[in-house]
Design goal:
About 15% of the residues lie in helices and about 40% in strands. It has about 140 residues and is mostly beta strands. A hairpin with a 4-residue loop joins strand 2 and strand 3. Strands 1, 2, 3, 4, 5 and 6 form a 6-stranded antiparallel beta sheet that branches. The chain has 3 helices and 6 strands, in the order βαββαββαβ.
Length: about 140
């Protein structure tokens, strides 16, 4: 069974960590959207998604091995079983959608609490798209 992960930041194709974490492991990728709210974390230089009703744009990455989640957990500072306030993100399954609106089902995603976003200087990205090339436009 494929392991599917929704990525919206540094793990997207062409971004900082895609090659080192995903190269040779991704069997397919597909543009997708999720319901949430996207922020750029000024103090960290990467994005965070919270729960919400806006559109967060990213990709579904498909992997043959579920072990990829352990590697991503390390990057995202998430440890299953650790108290939520000690994790930077929470890994959970969320529903994602084709850009035209049809549901693509449940996939794994890393979601941050609104409290943590505020602590890390989160800047709202109302169009739901993050990329390092846009950082100069956000006054980092």
């Amino acid at each position: 069974m494929l392991t599917k992960v929704f990525v919206y930041g540094t793990l997207k194709p062409g971004e900082r960590y895609h090659h080192s974490y995903c190269s040779g492991l991704v069997t397919s990728n597909q543009p997708a959207n999720a319901r949430g709210k996207l922020y750029h974390l000024k103090k960290r230089g990467y994005p965070a998604m919270t729960e919400g009703n806006d559109k967060v744009r990213g990709f579904i990455l498909c992997f043959e091995e579920a072990a990829i989640l352990l590697k991503m957990d390390e990057l995202e500072n998430y440890k299953p079983g650790r108290p939520a306030e000690e994790n930077e993100y929470d890994r959970r399954q969320i529903e994602v959608f084709h850009p035209l609106g049809d549901s693509l089902g449940l996939v794994w995603a890393y979601v941050m609490s609104p409290k943590r976003v505020i602590e890390l200087g989160g800047v709202d990205m109302p169009d739901g798209w993050w990329s390092e090339s846009r950082l100069a436009c956000i006054n980092c």
